[in-house]
Amino acid sequence: MIKHCLLSMCASGKYTSRGPALIPRMKTKHRIYYITLFSVVLLGLIATGMFQFWPHSIESTAEWSLDRRSVHDAPLVRLPVSSPIPERGDLSCRMHTCFDVYRCGYNPKNRIKVYIYPLQRFVDEVGVPISSTGLSREYNDLLSAISDSDFYTDDVTRACLFVPSIDVLNQNSLRIRETAQALAMLPRWDKGMNHLLFNMLPGGPPDYSTALDVPRDRALLAGGGFSTWTYRQGYDVSIPVYSPLSADVELPEKQPGPRRYFILSSQTAIHREYRAELERLKEENGEALLLLDKCSNLSQGAASARKRCYKGQVFDYPQILQESSFCVVLRGARLGQATLSDVLQAGCIPVILADSYILPFSEVLDWKRASVVIPEEKLPEMYTILKSIPHRQVEEMQRQTRWFWDAYFSSMKAIGMTALEIINDRIYPYAARTYEQWNNPPVVKWSSVNSPLFLPLIPPRSPGFTAVVLTYDRIESLFRVITEISKVPSLAKLLVVWNNQNKSPPEESLWPKIAVPLKVVRTKENKLSNRFFPYDEIETEAVLAIDDDIIMLTSDELQFGYEVWREFPDRLVGYPGRLHLWDHEMGKWKYESEWTNEVSMVLTGAAFYHKYFNYLYTYKMPGDIKNWVDAHMNCEDIAMNFLVANITGKAPIKVTPRKKFKCPECTAIDGLSLDQTHMVERSECINKFASVFGTMPLKVVEHRADPVLYKDDFPEKLKSFPNIGSL
């Protein structure tokens, strides 16, 4: 019986050393059929994948170039008189109302695709061109730059943005109606949706509009003379007026510092009232101001455009601009002036007097770092205003001006790519460039300053910290503070910020002798914000901000505070704790310094933080908070708490139980913080800052950090930080 079964199994299926074959053998003709079908499906999937994910290198084989397409060989397009005319630009347009972002789609490189229309020659019914100049060299350079970039595509179905090959850079050369009709005839026009026009010289006599007069429906406009009345915030792009001298004259970069002239005016066609006011300033300030005009004794032409004169003395232009610290840029018939580009190239700080002018690329560029904007009515006070700017700030601005020109103004390519980058950032905001990437030249050491939000969990102990002591004239207590801080094992450098402009620091021989570098920085103005300036001397990640009268903190307390900061490098870690409370009776915030169970701030009179926050405080503090602090000489510590809490969404960390920190003889009634007037001012600060931030970012906690074993009944030698004060 058993033998029969085994034989049956052997008969009904192939049995091998690997076990029984459970699936019957397929007939040969069926097997060939299924193999063929499977192969066809597999090849189809492979082909589909290659089409979807293989780089589309075909785009580079048909780039837009005048080298391949002569303007004269371009097809002729005749515009009937009855051709439709677009609507005049819609001032209500924004990216979410007049731009189809879905056309851009998902892009692994987060890059929009730009299509350039084929070159055509548009003429009216009698054969007259729509433009008197055709395609300018500048517009050809712009289109060629786009076609050479990774924005470009020659596949119209993949395009997110469309750029016409119709040159509207200079409105003076255009026939307005016919140009508008030519735009409307573009195959993908669709009321201007997702179309971008470049214009640098808008308007015409007598009123000189600040935006292109050509009706353009919903098209975006990269314009060179916008005012606040015509600029559509977040939709249009304000671009500079390109200076032809940029391509013809090469100016070597000049090192920042004092120049031969303090103020220079080089524009030749300014209003007579402005010139009269400049002449009056010249009379008052003599050789400090150079007032140039066109040269009347030279024949007109290209050569004379590069000359300026003052009382028969001839100067080379734009080279003379490099001899002045500040250069005046006044509005002319148009708000946008090519002079601005010349001034930036020369490394001269532009003094812009053009009310309502939207500065080029102001959506991303911080012009406060590279220019001085003065209302036109303040022209008589210009000299006084400029004289009040500290020398260190002037040098920083000189450096910034030249970098702005190199990066964003130096060529039509730079201008065009910047405009496209701005639009790209709007469409892919999660991949947008940061403020620092737009505004910090390579010489600024931001590359070595990492946000503490992205540091390793625990920064290394070896670099230590830099102590920054803000002082005015309390020499005795300052020296005591330096002596005590120098005992901290992790101290790497000590930086004294000397905030007294009327008194020199003590001689070097009088300072305490310590084992780490001691550097004294003299400030130009007595400002509390000097405490948080990103000094080049700060080379460590950790900074200890400490006042010159905080003498009661021991070296153990300071070392422990640094160890806590290493665990929490994105927090403010400090000693004096404070709290903000809501006053229900008054309906506003108030500042509380009494001993409580809660903490929402630690005062930077003694606190560790990451040096990254110095950059944020100096360059990215919202609203007018920094100026308000300096004007009131109060609350810089509260402002820093607001800034850090707003960036991180986290509360500060108070360390050790100590409540008193200052020497009793330094201030009356144990310090200024107990004065009632001072408390009222601090409450005003909290309400002011909450209003500017638009929220209350401070977080309340009910804990502090203390060393393990510090209160336990153990031998002192077993404790890591035995000398921890109780009050």
Describe this structure in words.
Helix content is 28%, strand content 15%. By secondary structure, the chain is of the alpha/beta class. The protein is globular, with a radius of gyration of 35 Å. The strands form 8 sheets. An 8-stranded mixed beta sheet has the order 19-18-17-20-25-21-26-27, sandwiched between helices. Strands 11-10-14-15-16 form a 5-stranded parallel beta sheet, with helices on both faces. The N and C termini lie far apart (98 Å).
How are the secondary structure elements laid out?
Elements: H1 2-12, E1 15-16, E2 19-20, H2 28-53, E3 76-78, H3 95-98, E4 114-116, E5 121-123, H4 137-147, E6 161-163, H5 176-184, E7 196-199, E8 220-223, E9 237-238, H6 245-248, E10 261-265, H7 272-285, E11 289-291, H8 302-305, E12 307-310, E13 313-316, E14 324-330, H9 339-345, E15 349-353, E16 372-373, H10 382-387, H11 391-409, H12 412-427, H13 435-439, E17 465-471, H14 475-485, E18 491-498, E19 518-522, E20 542-547, H15 555-567, E21 573-574, E22 577-583, E23 588-592, E24 601-602, E25 606-610, H16 612-619, H17 625-632, H18 636-648, E26 653-655, H19 676-693, E27 704-705
Parallel strand pairs: 3-5, 4-6, 7-8, 8-9, 10-11, 10-14, 14-15, 15-16, 17-18, 17-20, 18-19, 21-26, 26-27
Antiparallel strand pairs: 1-2, 12-13, 20-25, 21-25, 22-23, 22-24
